[in-house]
């Protein structure tokens, strides 16, 4: 088993594994060059290019995992929905989904539609160093639904919430359909060789706990249940989810992602027994003086070792203007500090 997989299953490791959400993409000059003149969603369906972009941060930073280069709207795109990713904005749907008729227009996603995805995963595995994991992913039903219902990125998710509370039956039917799509999309990545997967519920933190548990959690649970037979580690992540961590941790993942607002020692008390943690350096700290970053790294590595299973990551995605050389230095520091602390025997 690769180091990241062992940490995700709370087994013993020689160092804390580290990767960064959004490590493939805008912070790297080699990414900008590879993507020149190619639309985002086209790049996700060109297997050689997808594999190259997925591998770029592994080569540059020496991270313990590659995150598959794709997007949460790719399953809808390959199923036939009219969606594009507009530069500087994000995913935009030609026709938002707001009625039962709209819902009926969402096509089913089948394994054979995921051929370009499977090819890209196979190519990525071929180029991956020995002890490096490939993490597949999909968007969680709620986060994907928010783009579908709003029609694009949204500040307050008002149409999504209005439907959730005003027509819970329709809302549930949409999330049920998306749960099936996310599971199919991840299954294709696992079948082609991904070692683990992450379910991104980035916008779950916009909900209060009661609404999250009633309207959203059951659909996320459906995704983890559908994939449980693969026996691979799974990670569940959302932003501003401090209040939801306890609820989200019951959805069925082996690892709970923690955003940068929550102390890892507090997160440790909120998740399920035996569940590993992932996180949680503030992405803005990448811009701070090095001694500040190094001291935060040690705090986080120590809290992770106190907890048991821990994967080091940022508390959300890499900011586009981050200096990539600082990210590389963070990876080295996590490895050095964690190896020293683990070898000291202090945390056994
Ligand atoms: O032209 C470009 O370069 C577009 C920028 C971009 C990139 C590089 C988008 C548009 N998506 C991606 C890739 C991507 N998206 C990855 C793989 C790369 C990696 O992580 O290294 C992943 C895992 C995602 C997942 C994703 N897409 C999420 C969940 C993760 C998160 O950051 O919370 C979300 C919310 C999206 C939607 C999306 N896609 C793109 C943008 C700019 C957005 C956010 C829009 C918004 O603010 O609502």
From TrEMBL:
Fetch the InterPro entries from UniProt. UROD/MetE-like_sf (IPR038071), Uroporphyrinogen_deCO2ase_HemE (IPR006361), Uroporphyrinogen_deCOase (IPR000257)
Record-given protein name: Uroporphyrinogen decarboxylase
Q: What does this protein do?
A: Catalyzes the decarboxylation of four acetate groups of uroporphyrinogen-III to yield coproporphyrinogen-III.
Recorded name of the encoding gene: hemE
Cited NCBIfam families: hemE
Its main subcellular localisation, reduced to a broad class, is cytoplasm
Q: Where is this site: Transition state stabilizer?
A: 71
Q: To which pathway does this protein belong?
A: Porphyrin-containing compound metabolism; protoporphyrin-IX biosynthesis; coproporphyrinogen-III from 5-aminolevulinate: step 4/4
Q: Which organism is it from?
A: Brevibacterium mcbrellneri ATCC 49030
Q: Does the keyword DNA-binding belong to this entry? A: no
Q: For this chain's UniProt record, which GO biological process terms are given?
A: protoporphyrinogen IX biosynthetic process
Q: Which reaction does it catalyse?
A: uroporphyrinogen III + 4 H(+) = coproporphyrinogen III + 4 CO2
Domain named Uroporphyrinogen decarboxylase (URO-D): residues: 17-26, 135-151
Subcellular location per UniProt equals:
Cytoplasm
Q: What is its EC number?
A: 4.1.1.37
Is Lyase set as a keyword in this record? yes
Recorded GO cellular component terms are:
cytosol
Give the residue spans that cross the bilayer. Answer: none
Q: Which UniProt keywords apply?
A: Cytoplasm, Decarboxylase, Lyase, Porphyrin biosynthesis
Binding-site positions, substrate: 22-26, 71, 147, 202, 316
């Amino acid at each position: 088993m690769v180091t990241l997989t062992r940490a995700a299953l709370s087994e013993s490791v020689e160092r804390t594994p580290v990767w960064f959400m959004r490590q493939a993409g805008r912070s790297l000059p080699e990414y900008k060059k590879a993507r020149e003149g190619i639309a985002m969603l086209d790049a996700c369906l060109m297997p050689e290019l997808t594999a190259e972009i997925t591998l770029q941060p592994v080569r540059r930073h020496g991270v313990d995992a590659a995150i598959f280069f794709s997007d949460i709207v790719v399953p809808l795109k390959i199923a036939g929905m009219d969606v594009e990713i507009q530069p500087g904005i994000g995913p935009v749907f030609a026709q938002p989904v707001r009625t039962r008729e709209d819902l009926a227009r969402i096509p089913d996603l089948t394994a054979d539609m995921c051929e370009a995805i499977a090819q890209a995963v196979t190519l990525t595995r071929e180029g991956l160093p020995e002890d490096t994991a490939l993490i597949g992913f999909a968007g969680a039903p709620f986060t994907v639904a928010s783009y579908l219902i709003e029609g694009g990125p949204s500040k307050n998710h008002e149409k999504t919430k209005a439907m959730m509370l005003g027509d819970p039956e329709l809302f549930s039917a949409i999330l049920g359909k998306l749960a099936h799509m996310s599971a199919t999309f991840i299954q294709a990545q696992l079948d082609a060789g991904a070692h683990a997967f992450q379910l991104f519920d980035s916008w779950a933190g916009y909900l209060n706990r009661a609404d999250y548990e009633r309207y959203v959690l059951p659909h996320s649970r459906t995704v983890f249940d559908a994939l449980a037979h693969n026996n691979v580690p799974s990670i569940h992540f959302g932003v501003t989810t401090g209040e939801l961590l306890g609820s989200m941790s019951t959805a069925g993942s082996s690892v709970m992602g923690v955003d940068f607002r929550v102390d890892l020692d507090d997160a440790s008390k909120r998740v399920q027994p035996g569940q590993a943690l992932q996180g949680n350096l503030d992405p803005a700290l990448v811009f701070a003086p090095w001694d500040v970053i190094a001291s935060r790294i040690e705090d986080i590595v120590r809290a992770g070792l106190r907890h048991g299973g821990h994967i080091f990551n940022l508390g959300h995605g890499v900011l586009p203007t981050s200096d990539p050389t600082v990210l590389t230095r963070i990876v080295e520091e996590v490895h050095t500090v964690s190896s020293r602390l683990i070898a000291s025997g202090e945390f056994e």
